[in-house]
Specification:
7 helices; 7 strands; SAM-dependent_MTases_sf; transferase; EC 2.1.1.-; rRNA (adenine) methyltransferase activity; methyltransferase
């Protein structure tokens, strides 16, 4: 297959987040929550295609539709409902369960393990309630004190080990990045924020959550392809769990990188498949 065009520099993560308006106040049912989230992602995909085609009129029209649906704040409200205990719970609880054997080594006199939670929605999740963890929370549109309004792709690179993290959480974040190259860039950037320095025996860790359709129903990504991409960056899968809608994975960072290139290539043809893709260029 011919190499993909690289004529357009990938946008920052913030380019995938639309302007916001006041969220709807009425409670959303589970079905309405899923519909809102699905519609929001479809509109973002359509807008990215319109931007690539240079169709400014269509971009403006799609932005209007996004705002009419409540913008980012309504999307975040739906995401919070999706994390409520009666709709599947807090994803970071699984992270804590998976790393509990290591956390049990920690003592109050030890420095805490540093966690960077990208796309944070709450300051009261399982990570935040774990005494051995010091959580830094960032999101493009902070909804409460304790969450820094920040684009991960714009966050200054660490200048010392103290500015790096033992754990990075990307829970339903990578699928929000509007283009395939940007997704690869985000995964590469994670490596720059991890540290091996720790008060206990703990390997740098990436906690990763995606809609299962991103690996089961994509034309360009399979679970094997995803694992190959992360392995090329030095990540080794140590835990995995699937539900009907989500795939949860825990990776240790080994530092053994292969600097491979992964292009957007057809892996699963089919008219009913989605176009989720990850492009990874050499370092």
């Amino acid at each position: 297959m011919a190499p993909q065009s690289r004529s357009k520099r990938p946008g920052l993560l913030s380019s995938g987040r639309p302007p916001t308006v006041k969220p709807r106040q009425a409670a959303l049912s589970s079905k309405a929550t899923r519909t809102l989230i699905r519609s929001h992602h479809q509109l973002l995909k359509a807008r990215a295609q319109a931007e690539k085609a240079g169709d400014e009129a269509k971009v403006s029209s799609i932005n209007a539709q996004i705002q009419a649906n409540g913008g980012l704040e309504s999307y975040q409200t739906a995401s919070k409902l999706g994390q409520s205990m009666d709709r599947g719970g807090d994803s970071s609880k699984l992270l804590i369960d998976w790393i509990k054997p290591q956390l049990d080594q920690w003592e109050p006199s030890f420095p805490k393990l540093r966690v960077l939670e990208v796309g944070a929605l709450s300051t009261k999740n399982a990570c935040s309630r774990t005494p051995s963890l010091e959580v830094t929370r960032i999101d493009l549109n902070s909804q409460e004190p304790g969450i820094l309004k920040q684009d991960f792709m714009k966050r200054p690179l660490p200048s010392s080990e103290e500015e790096r993290f033992n754990i990075i959480s990307l829970s339903l974040v990578l699928n929000y990045v509007p283009d395939a190259t940007g997704r690869g860039d985000m995964l590469k950037r994670c490596v720059q924020f991890l540290t091996s320095q720790c008060s206990i025996s703990f390997v740098p860790t990436l906690f990763f959550v995606l809609p299962v359709a991103c690996v089961d129903n994509s034309r360009y990504v399979t679970e094997k392809r995803l694992l190959d991409i992360l392995a090329s960056l030095g990540f080794h899968l140590v835990q995995s769990k699937r539900t009907n809608k989500l795939i949860y994975q825990l990776f240790n960072y080994t530092g053994q990188c292969s600097s491979r290139t992964f292009k957007k290539e057809m892996l699963n043809p089919g008219t009913k498949r989605n176009n989720f893709a990850i492009i990874l260029h050499e370092k």
